[in-house]
């Protein structure tokens, strides 16, 4: 369904895909005017991941993204015209689910081949994808270190290369599961469930800057007890001027006064 009046009214519901098969695990991301939908269905006898772009006037053709069957939990994100999809899939030669990733540079018309982000050491499941300042990031739940933890990787852009290795967002003292992520200018915000015990859990949060802050200005000092133009190093005050943040980061100005 679609609303053109801020959600006051909606269009008549219509199916995302039509056929004599099961469809589930839908995820959606909205661009400037189009919606991008991914889902899992079993039209080929096993579960595969499909994509479709829904415009204001018509919907584009469905695109199959997964190279192997037994695939689930797709997620989609982007910064138009770039669209990114992640999902979990079990390779025919593996017993564990791995995280896969595909990208499009033209609004989902054509796609890269699916790339595997994890290496089958243990279950890697329930991935999410977010785009922050032009770079795509994937987060998922991983069991390679003995307890569920949240791992992530920056998958890069055509301008910015990917980060070299998978990184851990959480430790392994207790299980951490069910990550979700959103982005704001210059930052990624991650939320997940931390299992303290069998009967107790809570939501945790972490923020990561995706734009490096500019270097602060050069510190300067004034000698409060010396004649102007001279230093006696008895009482010195250091201070810094804040760099322009351009609305992304905020600098504070610090000073210290005391005997040298």
Beta fraction of the residues?
Answer: over 45%
Question: How confident overall, as mean pLDDT?
Answer: 85
Largest sheet: 4 strands, antiparallel
- Give the termini separation: 69 Å
| Helix-strand makeup class | mainly beta
Low-confidence stretches: none
C-alpha-based Rg, rounded: 25 Å
Strand order of the largest sheet: 1-2-3-4
> Count of DSSP helices?
0
* Outline type: elongated
Q: Find the count of extended strands (DSSP E, 2+ residues).
A: 18
In helices, the fraction of residues equals under 10%
Element pattern in H and E: EEEEEEEEEEEEEEEEEE
What does this 3D model show about the protein?
This protein is mainly beta and 260 residues long. It has strands spanning 23-30, 35-41, 48-54, 63-64, 71-79, 82-90, 97-104, 115-116, 124-132, 135-142, 149-156, 167-168, 176-184, 187-197, 200-209, 220-223, 235-239, 255-259. Helix content is 0%, strand content 47%. The strands form 5 sheets. A 4-stranded antiparallel β-sheet has the order 1-2-3-4, with no helix packed on it. Strands 5-6-7-8 form a 4-stranded antiparallel β-sheet, with no helix packed on it. Strands 9-10-11-12 form a 4-stranded antiparallel β-sheet, with no helix packed on it. It has no helices and 18 strands. The radius of gyration is 25 Å and the shape is elongated.
Which properties best describe this structure?
260 residues, four-stranded antiparallel β-sheet, mainly beta
Topology (SSEs and partners):
Blueprint: E1 23-30, E2 35-41, E3 48-54, E4 63-64, E5 71-79, E6 82-90, E7 97-104, E8 115-116, E9 124-132, E10 135-142, E11 149-156, E12 167-168, E13 176-184, E14 187-197, E15 200-209, E16 220-223, E17 235-239, E18 255-259
Antiparallel strand pairs: 1-2, 2-3, 3-4, 5-6, 6-7, 7-8, 9-10, 10-11, 11-12, 13-14, 14-15, 16-17, 17-18
């Amino acid at each position: 369904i679609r609303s053109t009046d801020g959600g006051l009214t909606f269009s008549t519901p219509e199916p995302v895909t039509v056929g004599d098969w099961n469809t589930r695990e839908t995820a959606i991301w909205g661009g400037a005017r189009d919606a991008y939908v991914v889902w899992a269905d079993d039209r080929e006898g096993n579960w595969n991941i499909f994509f479709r772009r829904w415009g204001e006037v018509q919907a584009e053709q469905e695109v199959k993204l997964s190279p192997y069957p037994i695939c689930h939990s797709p997620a989609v994100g982007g910064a138009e015209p770039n669209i990114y999809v992640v999902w979990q899939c079990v390779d025919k030669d593996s017993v564990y689910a791995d995280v896969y990733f595909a990208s499009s540079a033209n609004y989902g018309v054509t796609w890269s081949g699916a790339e595997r982000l994890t290496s089958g050491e243990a279950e890697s499941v329930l991935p999410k994808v977010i785009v922050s300042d032009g770079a795509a990031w994937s987060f998922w739940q991983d069991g390679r270190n003995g307890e569920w933890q949240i791992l992530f990787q920056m998958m890069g852009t055509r301008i910015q290369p990917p980060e070299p290795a998978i990184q851990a967002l959480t430790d392994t003292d207790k299980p951490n599961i069910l990550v979700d992520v959103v982005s704001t200018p210059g930052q990624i915000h991650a939320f997940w469930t931390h299992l303290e015990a069998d009967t107790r859990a809570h939501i945790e949060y972490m923020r990561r800057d995706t734009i490096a802050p500019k270097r602060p200005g050069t510190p300067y000092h004034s000698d409060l007890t010396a004649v102007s133009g001279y230093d006696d190093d008895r009482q010195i005050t250091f201070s810094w001027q804040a760099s322009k943040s351009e609305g992304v980061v905020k600098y504070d100005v610090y000073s210290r006064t005391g005997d040298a």
